[in-house]
Design brief:
Blueprint (H helix, E strand, L loop, with lengths): L1 H24 L2 H34 L3
Length: 64
Amino acid sequence: MMKSTTDRKMVNSRKHSIVEAAEAHFDKNTLILIVNVVILLCLISLLYMVATSAMAASGSHNEH
């Protein structure tokens, strides 16, 4: 039980230091913008994969 709490503390401190290092170079709003753009690109790629697989599936059924 104690080991997992220390692991969490190490992960939280590591994430915190990464955020602090990034904030030293960028503004907070710039970081939020970058994170949002990355999330948007991931969602667009996921939507593209779903749409192309749906088009392929519907194309194979209409050939009869």
